[in-house]
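Appendix B. Raw example, untouched.
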Amino acid sequence: MEINLYTYQILSIIGSILILLLLIELVRKRKLKENYSLLWFGIAIVFIIFSIWPDLLFFIASLLGIQYSPSALFLILITGLYLLLLHFSVVISELSEKNKNLSQKIGLMDLEIRKLKDKNRKTR
């Protein structure tokens, strides 16, 4: 049984659209925040674009000097994943700093409460 390139193109378009619909559903159910979903939507749209226009991948591969165009797709995907990891590293760093600041504030508030309790006990 031989499957032609047109069938692969249709399957890749359907798969890309299903990924996009999954992302929309995750955002709708609030399982994925909107600000994080933008990168994922960008990747899904790139998938759709390459599924609809496979010649674009051949063009990009030739611009990059890559002989085997699926290698260009892997390069694009790895670059996208690298950007995604970089984004999450920035987010984790910010959250870590906020967590440290909140811990310090809670410690100061706890100290203040203890001082007030001691002061209240002494005035009785």
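End of appendix B.
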